[in-house]
Amino acid sequence: MTSPASLTSEFHLGFEFRYCCNPSALSATVRDVWCQLSLDPQTQRFVEERFEAPHGWFKTVAHAWLRRFVSDFDANGLLGAYPLHLLSTPQWRQLLGAAPVASHLDFGAGNGDLTASLSPLVQHTTTTERSKAMRRVLRSRGFECVSTDAHDLEGAVDSRRFDLVTCLNVLDRTSHPWSLLRDLEDRVGDDGRLVLAVPLPVDPFYYAGAAARAPIEALELSGDDWERQCSSLAHAVTESQSLRLEGACRAPYISGGDARRRLYVLDDAILVFRRTGGTAKQGRIRR
């Protein structure tokens, strides 16, 4: 792991992409496992391709019309709209290492864009997705996909446990984030890893049909800046004592744009936790 750099931004085509942070504002636990990333060729290529080909007015208006009846995720799935990028495959290797992963569970995989960037590191991936439209997209891309409630894995993947469990930009879009974390923890196999990606500062809500509502379980983190909220999230997860923080980084969560804006960018914390031993039911995440 490398020390976090204090420079805060990189710019490309007029957009700001943040990989660095203020290291003095991080907890020692996060700072000690920091993995410093930067804007790499695969990410630049995604940005340039999407910058040159945003959705036109027809898809932009169609999306707005569909949102009167369905969630943002369903509208995206139905239209094949707003491609996404978080980390490139080389960046995932830098964060997770080059050793192959036998089994991978990607919870709330959406359209599979983020799952696909992880695929070269993984021998087999199982995805879950609540949105029917997105499940159809995932299966068309060749991913095993099961339906699941937004915060409950029971029955979706039986009692299976996985070498790698990922939950990428879902925790802030579910009604029961802490219950979801407990379920995810239970799916991590012995010496397995859990990866969380969350845009910070956190702005949580979930969709009930087309309506956006406040979470039933409040996803509240300490501090009002990126560094302190990142540290607060890491502390909340490791309180369970069955997971320890193994890696952390900052990266832009990038969406292709539309007739209004060429790109949309959020500011993600990506945290890697390792199961420390014992059974999956020991040491529950509490909130």
Description:
The chain is of the alpha/beta class and 287 residues long. The chain has one domain (10-275): Vaccinia Virus protein VP39 (Rossmann fold). 29% of the residues lie in helices and 28% in strands. The protein is built from 9 helices and 12 strands. The chain has an 8-stranded mixed beta sheet with strand order 3-11-12-8-7-4-5-6, with helices on both faces. It has a two-stranded antiparallel sheet with strand order 1-2. Strand 11 and strand 12 (263-275) form a beta hairpin. Helix 3 crosses helix 4. The radius of gyration is 18 Å and the shape is globular.
Structural class: alpha/beta
Shape-level CATH architecture: 3-Layer(aba) Sandwich
Count of DSSP strands = 12
Helix percent reads 25-40%
Mean pLDDT: 91
Please mark out the parts with pLDDT under 50 across 5 or more consecutive residues, or reply none.
279-284
Order of helices and strands: EEHHHHEHEHEHEEHEEEHEE
Q: What share of the residues does DSSP label as strand, in percent?
A: 25-35%
Oligomer: single chain
CA distance, first residue to last residue: 29 Å
* CA-atom Rg in angstroms: 18 Å
- The CATH superfamily name is Vaccinia Virus protein VP39
Q: Give me the number of helical elements.
A: 9
Largest β sheet strand count, sense and barrel closure: 8 strands, mixed
CATH topology, what is it called?
A: Rossmann fold
Strand order of the largest sheet: 3-11-12-8-7-4-5-6
